[in-house]
Amino acid sequence: MLNGTEILTTAQMRAIESAAMDSGAVTGLELMERAGAAVVAALLERWPDPGRAFVLCGPGNNGGDGFVIARLLKDRGTEVTTLFLGERDRLSPDAAVNHDRWQQMLGDGDFWLPDPAEDTDLTSPDFEIGSSDVVIDAMLGTGANRPLPSTWANHLSDAVEGGNPVIAVDALSGLDLDSGRYAIDGRERSHIRATLTVTFQRAKVGHKLEEGPDRSGELVVADIGLEQDVRRHFDGPALRHEPVPSIRLTSPALARPLSKSSGHKFDHGHALILAGAAGRGGAARLAARAALRCGAGLVTLACPRDAIAENAASLPDAVMLRPLDEPDDLRKLLADKRINAICAGPGLGVERAATLLPVLAEDARDPKPVTWVGNQKFTFDLPFRAGRPTVLDADALTAGAAQGQAFLQGLHVNTILTPHEGEFARVFPDLGARLKQKHPTLSTLDAVREAADRAKAVILLKGPTTVISANAPRLRGKPPVEAWINPAAGPDAVPWLATAGSGDVLAGIITGILARGLPPLDAAATGAWLHAAAARRFGPGLIADDLPEELPGVFRDLGL
Ligand SMILES: NC(=O)C1=CN([C@@H]2O[C@H](COP(=O)(O)OP(=O)(O)OC[C@H]3O[C@@H](n4cnc5c(N)ncnc54)[C@H](O)[C@@H]3O)[C@@H](O)[C@H]2O)[C@@H](O)CC1
Ligand SMILES: Nc1ncnc2c1ncn2[C@@H]1O[C@H](COP(=O)(O)OP(=O)(O)O)[C@@H](O)[C@H]1O
Ligand SMILES: [K+]
Known about the structure:
The chain has 560 residues and is of the alpha/beta class. Helices cover 40% and strands 16% of the residues. It folds into two domains: 26-225, Rossmann fold (3-Layer(aba) Sandwich); 264-555, 3-Layer(aba) Sandwich (UDP-N-acetylmuramoyl-L-alanine:D-glutamate ligase). The protein has 20 helices and 20 strands. It comes from Paracoccus zhejiangensis. K(+) binds at residues 62, 137, 173.
C-alpha cells in the first residue's frame, strides 16, 4: 500500500457500505449496531460514568445510530433522554427497528420527546440539555444535504453554551462531509463544535477540509468491520486496470525515501533557486536553506550581479552563487543538465519573474525530458509536456497570472504551483471566485483538482489545511493518488506556521525534495508534511528562519 491513509468521500462510503451489504457479509442492522457501540465505547473511554445523556436523533440512519446509543447507554445504567427530530414512518427499515427497540425500553426516568414540531413543551426542566453529562448529536451524518435547521442548531448551541461535551456521531450536524463547510439556516454560530466526533471506518474528506477539523473536535475513526470492503473498493478496480484514485492524508511515512544512502553529491541532485534584486533576497535565501536542509546535493542561487555580495554574506558557504541579470543568463545556467530542480518565485520580483517564465517554458521543450509517471522515471518523449521539476511560487504565480493562457501552456507535468488562496484566485480567477461565493458550489478539493486538470501540473493550495492534486498521466493498474490533504488545523493545528516567509521555506523544501528525485506529487505532499512537522517541533515563537534549521531534528526523529 502507498503511504498515507485513504480518506473517503460520502459517495465512496455509501458505495463501500452497500457493497458490504450486497455481498451478504453484513446487514445494515449489524452495521448500525456496530456504529452505535463504537460511539458508546469511545464516549465511555473519555467520560466513564455519565449519569445523564441527551441523544438528539435525526430523521435518517444517523438517527438510527442515535437510538442504538440510547439503548446501549441505558443498558449500562445511564439515564437517557432522546429527542427525535423525524417521523417514525419515514425511517429506513434499520433505523425503524432501532427506534422501536428504544421505544419499548423506555421506563421511568427516560423522556421520550417527539418531534418538536408537534406540541412538546421544550421549556420543561426535564428536557433541558443543560442537565446532561453528555450530549450525543445523531441528527445528521453523511446524508446531510442542506443547511441545518436553526431550531436543530439551537440544541447544539445550548449544549456548547452549557459546557456539556458534544459527541458527534459521524459528523457534527451541519458539517458537509465532502466540503468541510458548516451551514446552518439563519445566523452562523461559530461557537458550535463537537468535543468528540466518532466516524466509521475512515475519516471523510469533510472532516479534514476547511471548517471540518475545528468543528469536529477530537476525531476517532472506529473500525466497524468494513476494512476489507474499503480495500476491495480501491484494489478490485485496480486489478481490472480501472484504478479508483484515492484521496490521502499526509503522514510521516512519506519522508522515508529521503533517507540518505551514501553517494556522489549529484546523486542527491542540484537545485537552482532564482532570486531577485538586492535588498529583496530574503525569501529566496530561505528557500535555498530549506532545499539544502532537505539534502539536495548542491544548491545554486542565481541573482542579479549586484545582489551577490549581499547573498554571499548571509547564506551558508554550501550554497553556490551565480549571476543572473538577463533571461539569456538563465538559458546558460539551464544548459547544465545536472540541475534537476528549479524554484522560481520567492523574492523574485514580479517583473523579473515575467521575463524568466518564458525561458522556463522553453526549457520544458527539451526533447528528452525526465518524466515521472507514478513512481517510474521516463527519459523519452511522451505525448504530453514534461520538463525539469520546477516549483512556481509567489511572484512567479503573480507574473504568470498576468500572462494568462500563455503561462498555463508553458507548464508541464513536473511543474508544481504552490499558491495561497489569493494567488490561486489570480491564476484561476473563475475557480477563486467560486470559492469565495457565500454558498460555494465547489469544495477546495474540487477546485484544486480542476486547477490541476487545466494546468496539467501539480497544484498545492496553501492554508491551514493544504490540498494537493496532480494531473499526471497514470500507469495502468497502479492505484493512483488523486489528492493529498495535509491538515494543520483543529487538533493538528500549527498556527505558528502563519508567519512571514513560511511559504518561501515550503517552496524550498519541495525544491530540495525534487532534487533528491522524488516524483512531483510525492515531493509536494512530503514537503507540506515536513513543513508542518518542523513548525510543530519548534512550537510557539517560530519565525520562518527557524524552519529549515528544525528539519534535521525532524529527520532524526524519523530515524532517517
Ligand atoms: N448506511 C449504512 O450502512 C450505515 C450508516 N450509518 C449511519 O447512517 C448515516 C447516514 O444515514 P443516511 O444516509 O440516512 O443519512 P443521514 O441520517 O445523515 O440523513 C438523512 C436524512 O436527513 C434528511 N436531511 C438531510 N439534510 C437535512 C437537513 N439539513 N435538515 C433536515 N433534514 C435533513 C434527509 O432528508 C434524510 O431523511 C451515517 O452518517 C452513519 O451515521 C451507520 O449506521 C453505519 C452503517
Ligand atoms: N493557520 C495556519 N495554520 C497552519 N499553517 C498555516 C496557517 N496559515 C498559513 N499556513 C501555512 O503557512 C504557509 C504560508 O505561506 P504563504 O501564504 O506563502 O506566506 P508567506 O508569503 O508569508 O511565506 C503555508 O505553507 C500555509 O500552508
Ligand atoms: K451527527
